[in-house]
Amino acid sequence: MRSLLLPFTLISALVLIPTCSCAMMNNNGPNHNSSLAITTTSSLLTYHKGPLLTGPKSINVYLIWYGLFSPMQKSTITSFLASFNPISHQSPSVSTWWKATQAYKDLRGRTVSSTVRLAGQASDIKSSLGKTLKRADIAVLVRRAISSKVFGVDPNGVYLVLTSQDVTVERFCMGSCGFHDNLAVSPRVRVVYAHVGDPATQCPSLCAWPFAAPAYGPPGQPVLRAPNGIGTDGMVMNIATLLAGAATNPFKNGYFQGDPLAPLEAVTACPGVFGAGAYPGYPGKLFVSATSKASFNAYGAGGKVFLLPAIWDLVSMSCKSLT
Fold it and tell me: Where found (predicted)?
């Protein structure tokens, strides 16, 4: 770890946590009529003929930790990003979830990259731009990290800014749990960046459901136990959502439906769906740890488990979940 002139600290190590023993059982949820299952608000995501983040190169994620995060938060999120490697993970896995993006192809028939990896990390623990940010400040942080050579220029990268629970970002928790966009770093090169905040204290009901009671919706549905903490698991779900959206619609002319400034994308086209039989207020059938009683649907690196949202599957033309 080394300090730079700019308020970033470069992190070189990927931290994994020890393997845990997790006996599982199915969560069948309440009895319900299958006709009530959630359907996407779109019957088709339209391809607008723009570039995607395609293989054979991996999608490289560059993390900027803005504010203070606990070691457990960092290890969980970096373990999640390590989980896209399909080697030695129990099924269903994070890499299994990502396979749904392989149906998304560009004009040349190239698919979204099958691999995602953590390529670099930097910390701004002093919150150098303050604790109340505009969305434009997220681009400033990314541009600064690139111009100072903390990170290189990577057209197949996603520069991901994560903000701690005491940092507010414009529109976060106001109908949004994060966003992705792109910016020019040279006359010929644009890069993709994204933001996800920690919702633990600001809006768990919006950005960490089903691990927090919803502010609105059907009463009486149980709140599920989070495997890694409400805020952290909320961030993981939203990072997954943004990575899928950024890969399939990186420059606002890829796969989406509706307004390009507020589009339905690969995951946001399947709101509230995490498992089979989902319907409004019920996330669907999930696994439940026999020991921790936490709900999840994907195994990951370092013995971690995660809850990941459904992806719109271009093959079956439906929301595809892991359970």
Answer: Secreted, Extracellular space, Apoplast
- Composition of the chain by helix, strand, coil, percent to 5: 20, 25, 55
pLDDT of 87: 73
Residue 144 lies in a domain: yes
- The string of pLDDT tens digits covering residues 192-250 is 999 999 999 999 999 999 999 987 766 667 899 999 999 999 999 999 999 999 999 99
d(CA 254, CA 265): 9
Secondary structure (DSSP) of 17-72: PPP----EEEE--S---GGG----S-S-PEE-S----BSSSPEEEEEEEES---HH
Strand partners, 161: 64, 195
Does an H or E element contain 295, and which?
strand 295-296
pTM of the model: 0.88
Residue 317 lies in a domain: no
Domain that includes residue 131, residue range: 2-16+48-266
Inform me whether the pLDDT recorded for 5 exceeds 50: no
Q: Provide CB contacts within 8 A for 29, sequence distance 6+.
A: 277, 282, 284, 285, 286
Closest CA to 312 of 242, 264, 279: 264
Instruction: Find the range with the poorest average confidence among 32-41, 133-142, 276-285.
Output: 32-41
Does 259 fall in a domain?
yes
Q: Three-class SS of residue 291?
A: coil
- Are the CB atoms for 160 and 196 separated by under 8 Å? yes
